[in-house]
Amino acid sequence: MKRTALVILLLLGGAAAAQADNDIYNNTLKQPRDDDALHADTAMCDAQVGAPQNGTATSRQYKRCMLSHGWRFSHTIRERVKRDDRYPDPDNPA
């Protein structure tokens, strides 16, 4: 029972701390496509070029790869990290 509770707490804590920037892409093809197609194409570009890293601009190569799959880069929604949300450093509490 204690082990299960510990696993649940670790999972919830990790999910609460997880943050990511969200890149927004627009479909350039004439037929409508769903999020599954977008996820498949991002997985292809992640494998070819490398996934964009949080806090950095999306590379031209990645945007070009997505455009070749029919997705035009629109913008990035950045999640700001508040000072209170960061992990405290015990050696430097300031």
Topology:
Layout: H1 2-17, E1 22-27, H2 35-49, H3 60-68, E2 71-77
Antiparallel strand pairs: 1-2
What does this structure look like?
The chain has 94 residues and is an alpha+beta fold. It has a domain at 21-79. The chain contains three helices and two strands. It has helices at 2-17, 35-49, 60-68; strands spanning 22-27, 71-77. A two-stranded antiparallel sheet has the order 1-2. The longest helix is centred in the first third of the chain and has 16 residues, at 2-17. The radius of gyration is 18 Å and the shape is elongated. The chain starts with a helix and ends in a 17-residue tail after the last strand.
Biggest pleated sheet: 2 strands, antiparallel
Low-pLDDT stretches = 12-17
Oligomer: single chain
Mean pLDDT: 80
Helix and strand sequence: HEHHE
**N-C termini distance:** 38 Å
Envelope shape:
elongated
